[in-house]
Amino acid sequence: MRNYLKHYINGEWVDSTGSETEEVINPATEEVIGKISLGTKEDLDKAVKAARDAFPSFSQTTKEERVEMLENIAKEYENRKEDIIETITDELGSPLEISENIHFMMGYNHFSQAAESLKNFSFIEEHDGHTRMKESIGVSGLITPWNFPTNQTSTKIASAFAAGSPVVLKPAELTPFAAVILTEIFDKVGVPKGVFNLVNGSGSVIGDGISSHPDIDFVSFTGSGATGEKIMKNASETIKKVALELGGKSPLIVLEDANVEEAAKAAVGHIATNSGQVCSAATRTLIPASMKEEFEEAMKKSLSEFPVGDPRQGNHIGPLVSKKQWDTVQSYIEKGIEEGATMIAGGTGKPEGLDKGYYTKPTIFTDVDNQMVIAQEEIFGPVMTVLTYDTLEEAIETANETIYGLAGYVYGKDPAMLRKAASGIRAGRVKVNDTEADFSSPFGGFKQSGIGREWGDYGIEEYLEVKTILGYP
Ligand code: NAD
């Protein structure tokens, strides 16, 4: 049992000033695996004060000192590899190989990349007639969701540290244990007192407290659009800068000359990875009408290679994170049936033999119209919608008919068509075929998918203010 009832404030584990706690559940077994304290506004005030007190000295540390700190963090993060993998599998239900290859690796890559980006980052630029200086923004409040417990926290913390900004982190209540390991890592490598503070708690108390706190200068939030809206409203009262990484309903355009099996496998991979609980997952696959039958068959075949089951047994699809998420996904599958889409795989209820745990059947709907609810709303589970198109122009138009713009994917061979599709999609990140991830590249959304960018040097920029000096001697 992991009972983490303390917050980490000013370089120490301290008791909560409140007595409320929340249980953490393993979604694969539905068993309680530990508890956290739900912090109070008093706890938050103490953490913000510690960060504020740390600001004058931390913001003046040299680039080299911060590079060394980030490199030490990356090394110690590697030392905690097994613990991180086990913890994420227990709290999130992601299969061990996903916890290792995606969750563990993303956190590691963000710390290493921040160190690299920082080495080449210029905090002072001479221009004709003026000098520009980039200075730490001040104290940053970080609020993160449950679906990537190390990725979202690490990208924010690494960028803030690179920029010289002390932070207060509030991780998601459903998956809080990975952040405890990160805290232990920072403590071990000697991150200066007050530079990192962890306050566990609810969105309505600690999250709300962060977005409205007069001594926090910047809020970086990842989560749902509804919460993002509240944070922006709250932050406006103290004219606080906000960065929002929100949801998506990303398109995957399959071109006429694409390898059908590879493209179908990629599409299925999007709903299988992390049980489809990925903000940037492709959940609308657009295929040429002429390819329909062949593609549907290839998708069914590919899905049969992703069994659902115990995340500790090496299966590819684990459970959803919670009963609430399970209910949401079920209601969208029911909605798809009601809207008249054709269900070629999956359906409602639990997969056979998996009565315990929040397992759901990966589901594929074809004959989907882009105006249907299942094509417009973020489901956040293993549910794919497949739409057909006649011309590439039509495919691009349909791809963009959404309030979101987080990501897009294109599969095919002809470079001119690939370029046309990739540049036509209005989203912050478009991936062509099976290109590798690049942690130096900016990540963030157009439209209602968010404001701002994370990762690499763009991530660091978020935690900086630009000062112009005229006549700098
Ligand atoms: P959520 O908005 O419910 O919660 C996210 C965080 O906000 C949690 O820590 C929660 O406690 C906190 N919170 C809740 N109410 C709050 C309030 N009033 N004020 C301040 N904080 C509050 O989202 P979730 O269900 O945890 O995460 C799923 C959502 O996150 C999906 O929409 C997904 O697309 C999005 N997401 C986006 C990205 C991205 O990079 N764009 C990445 C991962 C997840």
Question: Could you give the topology of this structure?
Answer:
Layout: E1 2-4, E2 6-9, E3 12-15, E4 21-26, E5 31-37, H1 41-58, H2 63-79, H3 81-92, H4 96-119, E6 124-127, E7 130-136, E8 140-143, H5 151-163, E9 167-170, H6 177-189, E10 196-198, H7 203-212, E11 218-222, H8 225-236, E12 241-245, E13 250-254, H9 260-272, E14 282-288, H10 292-304, H11 323-338, E15 342-345, E16 363-366, H12 373-376, E17 383-389, H13 392-400, E18 404-405, E19 407-411, H14 415-424, E20 429-432, E21 446-447, E22 450-451, H15 456-462, E23 464-469
The chain binds nicotinamide-adenine-dinucleotide.
Residues 143-148, 152, 170, 172-173, 203-204, 207-208, 211, 222-224, 227, 230-231, 245-248, 279, 378, 380, 406, 445, 450 line the site of nicotinamide-adenine-dinucleotide.
- Distance between the terminal alpha carbons, to the nearest Å? 60 Å
Architecture of the largest domain, according to CATH? 3-Layer(aba) Sandwich
Structural class: alpha/beta
Strand order of the largest sheet: 15-16-17-14-13-19-20
CATH H level of the largest domain: which superfamily?
Aldehyde Dehydrogenase, Chain A, domain 1
Largest sheet: 7 strands, mixed
What is the domain total for the residues?
2
What share of the residues does DSSP label as strand, in percent?
15-25%
Number of separate helices: 15
